[in-house]
Write a structure and sequence with these properties.
360 residues, alpha+beta, Phosphorylase Kinase, domain 1, 3 domains, 3-stranded antiparallel β-sheet
Length: 360
């Protein structure tokens, strides 16, 4: 558990901790650090603090300091590939192959060339079960839709229980990578035309969810998986999923600030949060989460800004900065018919990157 002084720290005290001093709250061995992280996440998660923006900032700071602490313990994925050993409740041990290990608000994410694993702390058991149940509940209206969408809702290869966590492991092909890792690999931003296929694919996913009466509520660069080879995007993070119109009690920090006013007022799940999240993902792909660089002079329908972003058509810039439609189908239509034509004739642009380029 965190020492009393860490729990007693105010938001301003935690935010004032230098980024190179994770030992200010994380000391001890790996198990101690893990327990302290879990307790502090519970204390500062925005959903446990009435959604206060200050809590979101503190939460993000704790996550960043925890990652630095793990680096110092030698548990960073860059230096400890294939390092995660899981001991199940029956006392059996197995290795969860990983090239990347990073914390997220429910536990830990692991990624290898052929697998994705989620290690979710037992304190979040309800969310874990919700995510698995949602994936298993997906139904397709006809064979054509099944062929198109089934690969984006894979069943877990295995589900395991340990003393402290539940673990879900999914298979993936080598061409699939986490979107945030692709963005980082590309220097912090994708070419606009590659951002476009990410947004198109996620909007297609939102349309399917709307037909199914579901909402994901956690779409972000850290939860979206993409295949540059086939220009497709999807997510395995269904922990916060809910039926449209049902009451929402928990959201991740990545989407909490994107909640539409109507959803904030009545706390009911709405596809509009997913549509807002898709826009945020598009902006993150461009290396500008705020969209500030997309405001500037327009010439020949191409946006030209002081930041040199000349590859974003003004129709796309406008779409990304406007509120979404009330319906995913209407939003996809406006993207396809009003925004995308700004790029000119459609053609497939190859991006020859696989997990072996990113996860060395």
């Amino acid at each position: 558990m965190p020492p009393p002084e860490a729990i007693a720290m105010t938001a301003s005290q935690i935010l004032a901790i230098p980024s190179d001093r994770p030992d200010a709250i994380f000391t001890g061995d790996a198990e101690t650090v893990r327990a302290r992280f879990a307790a502090l996440v519970k204390r500062w998660h925005p959903d446990h603090n009435d959604g206060l923006r200050e809590a979101t900032l503190v939460f993000n700071k704790i996550v960043a300091l925890h990652e630095k602490a793990k680096l110092r313990l030698g548990a960073d994925p860059a230096t400890a590939a294939d390092a995660l050993r899981v001991k199940d409740s029956a006392g059996r041990s197995f290795d969860l192959t990983c090239k990347v290990r990073r914390p997220f608000e429910l536990g830990e994410l692991t990624v290898s060339h052929t697998k994705v694993g989620f290690v979710v702390d037992r304190s979040h058991n309800e969310l874990f079960e919700n995510g698995i149940a949602t994936l298993r509940s997906i139904r397709y209206p006809d064979a054509k839709v099944r062929i198109q969408m089934e690969r984006f809702f894979p069943a877990p290869r295995g589900i395991y229980e340990t003393r402290d966590a539940k673990v879900a492991v999914f298979d993936k092909s080598e061409d699939i990578v986490v979107l945030s890792d692709l963005i980082a690999h590309m220097g912090g931003a994708l070419p606009a035309k590659h951002m476009a296929w990410v947004v198109s694919s996620l909007l297609n996913l939102c349309c399917f969810l709307e037909v199914c009466g579901l909402t994901n509520n956690a779409i972000s660069p850290e939860t979206v998986l993409v295949t540059p080879t086939h220009h497709a995007a999807f997510t395995l993070s269904w922990w916060y999923a809910a039926r449209a119109g049902s009451r929402v009690t928990l959201l991740p920090p990545s989407t909490f600030d994107l909640v539409p006013p109507s959803m904030a007022r009545d706390k009911s799940a709405s596809i509009r949060l997913d549509l807002e999240s898709v826009r945020a993902v598009g902006l993150a792909c461009l290396g500008d989460p705020t969209g500030a660089s997309l405001i500037g002079e327009r010439s020949d329908a191409v946006l030209r800004t002081a930041m040199g972003r000349i590859d974003v058509p003004s129709s796309v810039s406008t779409w990304l900065r406007l509120p979404p439609a009330a319906s995913a189908i209407d939003d996809y239509r406006s993207w396809s018919e009003m925004a995308l034509p700004g790029f000119g004739p459609r053609r497939f642009l190859k991006l020859r990157i696989t997990s072996r380029d990113i996860y060395i």
